[in-house]
Here is the input.
Amino acid sequence: MERATWVDGRVTAGHQSGLVKENRQIKEGTPEARELGDMVLAALERSPLFISAALPQRVFPPLFNCYEPGMHFGAHVDNAIRQVPGTPFRVRTDLSTTLFLSRPEEYDGGELVVEDTYGTQSVKLAAGDMILYPATSLHRVSPVTRGARLASFFWIQSMVREDSHRTLLFDLDMAINKVNQTVPNHPGVVALTCCYHNLLRTWADA
Here is the structure.
């Protein structure tokens, strides 16, 4: 990241988002951006929890940003469709992600504030932790007042378009795993797994 070329973060913002966005980003398409993005994608592939929650069909190449004192991102909703630069592919942004790269004690402010059906959530995670949330949510980044907030952000097109369906599948998958750990090889696990895959078959766009 220290070798990377940083540009105005508004280069990837839509018209409305650009009016309330003030940060810096690593320039897309550079060797550093690709190398860092590949590191993030490789980590995601090793995470069963991420796969279960997102059921990813396409992942937008990870971007990287920096908020320094006075920088912020006002309330906005992410664009519904994003073109992958240099390719014919588009990603429907079902899910938004923020991967925190700075330790919380290294900066003040910079919370990701997400408004959803369960109210307003203020998120500031440990370095290496990531939040995954519906891209339909209104969200913002609070002003940073000290230090620097480094993060990666990107979007996911899920095999299952509806957030409520993904939530049900995730809860069912977690319950199956818990039952299997408590009572290994119980016949009920097979029946629940059958229900899971039949629901996924019904709802998936893959």
